[in-house]
Design goal:
The protein is α+β, with helices and mostly antiparallel strands and 157 residues long. It has a single domain, classed as 2-Layer Sandwich (Beta-Lactamase). Helices cover 35% and strands 28% of the residues. Strands 1, 2, 3, 4, 5 and 6 form a six-stranded antiparallel beta sheet that branches. Helix 1 crosses helix 2.
Length: 157
């Protein structure tokens, strides 16, 4: 079985994601011991949600750990083809865009709270999320990441 986190491009992405998190938050997201491959595996199997998207005008999700895939009820192929705006319902997308723009300007935001929706229509409230800019070592911005460990399912509309 091919583990997506073991793909060399994903291992490299995980390093940028983890390095950028440490740059902005001044803490490590996970234990950084071991090889980049071991770190990618540790990140993928973390109990908290980690997701990211690229720098496109309409950003596409490009990483989700197992917790994210489970929460959004998607497999890797489905998740990594999804425009990140679709993780929020239409009424919540404007607020989501404002939050992402604020993170772009500041480098990161913490204590974000917002409603998201899974691929099967389950709504959940995310609480105390951190969103940060992901960049290469030369400073080139290549996307944004998000992590959170607090969420609760909401009643259907």
């Amino acid at each position: 079985m091919q583990f997506h986190w073991a793909n060399p491009s994903i291992v490299e992405w995980c390093q940028h994601l983890l390095d950028s998190y440490a740059h902005w938050i001044k803490l490590e997201l996970i234990d950084r011991t071991g090889t980049p491959l071991e770190q990618a595996e540790r990140l993928f199997n973390s109990t908290f949600v980690v997701a990211s998207h690229g720098p496109e005008a309409d950003p596409i999700l490009n990483y989700g750990n197992q917790a994210a895939l489970s929460l959004w009820v998607m497999d890797w192929q489905q998740f990594t083809k999804t425009p990140s705006r679709l993780t929020a319902e239409p009424p919540n997308r404007e607020e989501r865009t404002r939050m992402l723009d604020q993170a772009k300007i500041q480098g990161y935001i913490s204590n974000y709270r917002g409603v998201r929706i899974s691929s099967i229509g389950e709504r959940f409230l995310v609480d105390q999320a951190i969103i940060w800019n992901i960049h290469k070592p030369d400073g080139t911005k290549i996307g944004q990441g998000a992590t959170f460990s607090n969420w609760k399912y909401l009643d259907p509309i």
